[in-house]
Amino acid sequence: EPNLPNLRMALGRAYRVNGRFDEALDQFFSVETLFPSNALIPYEIGRTYETYIGNPTAAVDSYERAVELDKDFAAPWVRLGILYYDQGNYPQSALAYEQILALGTESADIYLQLGLAYANVGECAKASQPLQTARTMQPDDERITDLVNSALELCSQPTPTPGPVASP
Description:
Blueprint: H1 5-17, H2 21-34, H3 40-53, H4 56-69, H5 74-86, H6 90-102, H7 108-120, H8 124-137, H9 142-156
Helix pairs in contact: 1-2, 2-3, 3-4, 4-5, 5-6, 6-7, 7-8, 7-9, 8-9
C-alpha cells in the first residue's frame, strides 16, 4: 500500500538519517499531497531543512505552515522561536515563546529565550519576569545565570538618542 502515511513518514525519516535528504523530502512532500491538513508533515519537512540541510528560511516556511494547520502543536512553535531569534526577529520570537507558554510547555530555556527576545527589543518590563523565572527554575545553571545577567544589564543601559549621522 504505497499511500500509507505512517510508512512514508518512517521512510522519509530513514532517508534523512542516512543522509539522503532529497529522497526524505520527496517522501514527506508526497505524504503532504495526500494529507495536506496534517501539521506533522510540514514540521518534519522543516526539521529536514533546518537540522539536516541547513536552510533556516525553508524551515521557517514549513514550521509556519505547521502552526497554521494546528496552533496547539508546540514543537514547531519552539523551532520558530529559536529560528526567529537567530535571525534577529526578536518580536516574532517573543510571540512564538508566548504561544509555547500558553500551550502549557514550560522550561527554563523557554522563559530565558522569551526574556532575551524582549530585552533585545528594549521591552525590559516584559523581559524581567521570564528572566527571573528562568533563573529560579535553574538556579545552579551558570549558562542561564550569565545570560539572565547579560539581558538585565542590557535593560539597565540607557536607550541612546539617535543623532545626526556624521559625514566621513
